Amino acid sequence: MSFTVAIDGPAAAGKGTISKAVAAHFGFAHLDTGLLYRAVAKRVLGGEDAVAAARDLKAGDLDAPGLRTPEVAQVASRVAVEAEVRSSLVDFQRAFAARSGGAVLDGRDIGTVICPEAAVKLFVTASPEVRAERRYRELTEAGHKTDFANVLDDVKARDERDRSRATAPLKPADDALTIDTSNMSIDEAVAAAIGAVQARR
Ligand code: C5P
């Protein structure tokens, strides 16, 4: 039987870390759906049309190098505004969610649009400053040269685009549990998420 955990929230709130930990704890598969939009963005940067790239997306594209750059993230949030890009990616995500053995999907619209019937819905968030600081640390540690003000501007611009778009905007599902990680350690946030999933099993 399928058991889906939907984890949504803004950039750098801790979704990725929490999703991986929940998946590992319960032995579920994990899909970072941001990678779909990033893979489309990468192909757009290479000159392809966004809708064509989304329709033609293959699972292998999600492992392409260079998907985690700030430039790709910004283009991803632009292609993600297009309704046709989004609709082209729905089947892939739903098929992943339906696999037996359980699945965790993280993104922006999993609990609201992709898997409205998910067994567990979490909305993981944190203040823009805390999220920018985490992203800044990640980027610096990965060897990217950047400054904090730029990262904060990027985070805010992406939030604004994700929240204000007409199709599948970023917002908590009515029945989502919100976890604000601003003042939580990683371990505390992971424990809260695992507890929420355990309660529904
Ligand atoms: O989560 P990540 O930062 O990798 O996502 C990149 C961009 O892809 C987001 O800013 C958002 O615009 C878009 N996205 C989306 N819906 C999802 C996942 C990501 O619109 N489910």
UniProtKB/TrEMBL annotation:
What does the record give as the reaction this protein catalyses? dCMP + ATP = dCDP + ADP; CMP + ATP = CDP + ADP
> What keywords are annotated for this sequence in UniProt?
ATP-binding, Cytoplasm, Kinase, Nucleotide-binding, Transferase
Q: What is its EC number?
A: 2.7.4.25
Which top class of enzyme applies to this chain? Answer: transferase
Q: Which residues bind ATP?
A: 9-17
Keyword Secreted recorded: no
Q: Which intervals hold domain Cytidylate kinase?
A: 5-45, 67-197
Pfam families in alphabetical order: Cytidylate_kin (PF02224)
Determine if Transferase is one of this entry's keywords.
yes
Q: Where in the cell is it found?
A: Cytoplasm
GO terms assigned for molecular function: kinase activity
Q: Which family does it belong to?
A: Belongs to the cytidylate kinase family. Type 1 subfamily.
Which HAMAP family does this entry report, sorted A to Z? Cytidyl_kinase_type1
Q: Which named protein is this?
A: Cytidylate kinase
